[in-house]
Amino acid sequence: MNQDELVEIAIEVDGEAAEAVVELFNRCNGGDWVEDSAAGEASGGGAVLESTGYDDLGNPLAGEYRMVVKTYLKPGPRGRRIQRKIEEGLWHLRLLYPMPEPVARIVKEEDWAHAWKRHYKPMRIGRRVLLTPAWEKPEPLPDDLVVRLEPGMAFGTGLHPTTRLCVAALEEWIQPGDSFLDVGTGSGVLAIVAAKLGARPVWATDIDPLAIRAASENALRNGIALAPEILHIQQGSIPAGQPGRFQVVAANILAEVLVGLFDGTYDTVSLAEPLAPGGRLILSGILEEKSEIVLSAAARYGLKEVERTQEADWVALVVRRENAE
Ligand code: SAH
């Protein structure tokens, strides 16, 4: 076996077992890959979550889904040790969940690094947003807003339901000239869509420096200038000193994080602060059963639900600040 080859271990499971297998693979072998074969049919591209470091949002969907969970090992004694640990772990899990034997095969390292790209094709969202991987040549309709993305290590390819729900909400709520804040911008996908819909200025933040880099590069790739009155990207969470500044705010992070953002757990500023009177806050990354904790956090800051959309188990909530508090 050559140095540029890897052992791929793949196992097809349902949603419940997937969670346990992902946990096992992560524990034994760091990052994991999750392929969602059901979404492959539904969205015509499949959802490979390039989730290294993002397995929070990349958690497998529960329910009817059949998924393939994969992990990759370097050849050599260490790889063999990990493989044995995985096989033992799977043996134990099989006592709890019925599942097939894992399938091991040898792949080129190159294929592994680019595997997710195979599933990442131009994708239409909402009425006219066409999300396109940077290396594809899409065929847009005359009215389409083409958004080119090279996500790199940052989350936000548009493959994940939570991103798609946000893009659809932006199409609905953003009017040209609205100011927009994207908290947790990842690849910059929502900030770029908002800028293309005419939002000015757009501010985007992320605590992850890799996301800041990916978002800046993607903005330029889409012809959006990094200038204070157009798009401003900064590392961090909720910008301080901007009360009531933004007509639309979006945060696609997990429910627990959203609650923390409202209550100022991570910052001195609440997620509610930068929202303008009458403005809309789009909250995503919320598993259905967690929507109540997010809504009650929003209510503590005078924000009421105006819309709820759902894809698979993921919910996006739009809440509104009343003009008179
Ligand atoms: N907005 C993109 C990416 C969402 S992933 C999309 O809709 O697809 C969530 C992002 O939030 C990640 O890039 C992560 O680094 C960032 N993040 C996590 N906690 C955060 C916090 N407290 N403040 C700001 N960003 C945060």
Automatic annotation (TrEMBL):
Keyword DNA-binding on entry: no
BP GO terms, sorted: methylation
Subcellular location per the Swiss-Prot or TrEMBL entry: Cytoplasm
Family note: Belongs to the methyltransferase superfamily. PrmA family.
Gene responsible for this protein: prmA
Coiled coil: none
Protein name: Ribosomal protein L11 methyltransferase
Described function: Methylates ribosomal protein L11.
Pfam families, per the entry: PrmA
A Gene Ontology molecular function term of the record: protein methyltransferase activity
Reactions listed under catalytic activity: L-lysyl-[protein] + 3 S-adenosyl-L-methionine = N(6),N(6),N(6)-trimethyl-L-lysyl-[protein] + 3 S-adenosyl-L-homocysteine + 3 H(+)
Keywords tagged on the record: Cytoplasm, Methyltransferase, Ribonucleoprotein, Ribosomal protein, S-adenosyl-L-methionine, Transferase
Biological classification of the source: Bacteria, Bacillati, Chloroflexota, Caldilineae, Caldilineales
EC code(s) of this entry: 2.1.1.-
Binding site residues for S-adenosyl-L-methionine: T163, G184, D206, N252
A GO cellular component annotation in the UniProt record: ribosome
Highest taxon of source: Bacteria
